[in-house]
Amino acid sequence: MSDISDELRENVTRRAGGRCEYCHAPSEGQIAWFPIDHIVPRNAGGLTEESNLALACPRCNASKWAFVDGVDPDTGSTVGLFNPRTQQWEEHFAWSEGDDPILNGTTIVGRATIFRLKINAADAVAIRRLLVDLGVFHLR
User: Fold this and answer.
1) Cα three-residue angle 73-112-58, rounded to 5 degrees
2) Mean pLDDT of the chain
3) Which of 22, 56, 60, 109 has the fewest CB atoms in 10 Å of its CB?
4) What is the residue-wise DSSP string for the chain?
5) Using H for helix, E for strand and C for coil, what is the string for 59-80?
6) Residue 140: pLDDT above 80?
7) CB 105 within 8 A of CB 81
8) CA 114, CA 57: separation in Å to the nearest integer?
9) Is 4's pLDDT higher than 90?
10) What is the spatial distance between Cα 12 and Cα 99, in angstroms, rounded to a whole number?
11) In this predicted structure, what is the pLDDT of residue 1?
C-alpha cells in the first residue's frame, strides 16, 4: 500500500505537467500508471513530502530505483542524479537535432542521469518515436 495520498499524487502530477520529470514522457495515453518517485529514496532517509517527490514514468522509476548517483559515461565520474526539485531540466538536457528523439546530457549530471535511467535505450527511443508520430510527445 502506498503512503502517498491521492491529493499528494494529484499535486505532484499537476506540478510535473503530466509527464515524467526525467525523460519527459507524457502520462497521457499511456497504458501504465506513472509512479511517484522519492528523489532521495526512503531507505536513504528521503521523506514522503512534495519537495522530495517527482512524477516518473515506469521505465525511469524502475531504472532509478534507490540510486541517488550515477556514472558520467564521458568522464567516468560519479555524480548525483538530476533532481527535479532543485535543478532545471533545460540546464542539463536537450533533445537531439533531427528526427530521432534522443535525449542528450548537456552537463555531467545530465549524462549520468541518462546513463543510469537508460533513457536512450533502443526500446525507449522507439516508444518516444511512436509517441511523437502520434502527436502525444513533443520534443521542443
Assistant:
1) 125
2) 95
3) 109
4) --SS-HHHHHHHHHHTTTB-TTT--BSTT-SSPPPEEESS-GGGT--SSGGGEEE--HHHHHHHTT--EEE-TTT--EEEPP-TTTS-GGGTEEEPSSSS--EEESSHHHHHHHHHHTTT-HHHHHHHHHHHHTT-----
5) HHHHHHCCCCEEECCCCCCEEE
6) no
7) no
8) 14
9) yes
10) 31
11) 45
Q: What is the distance of C-alpha 65 from the center of its chain?
A: 12
∠ at Cα 38 (101, 94), nearest 5°?
Answer: 25
pLDDT in tens, 95-119: 998 878 999 999 999 999 999 999 9
Neighbours of 121 (CB within 10 A): 12
Spatial separation of the C-alpha atoms in residues 99 and 102, rounded to whole Å? 9
pTM listed for this prediction: 0.95
The span from the first CA to the last CA of the chain, in angstroms, equals 37
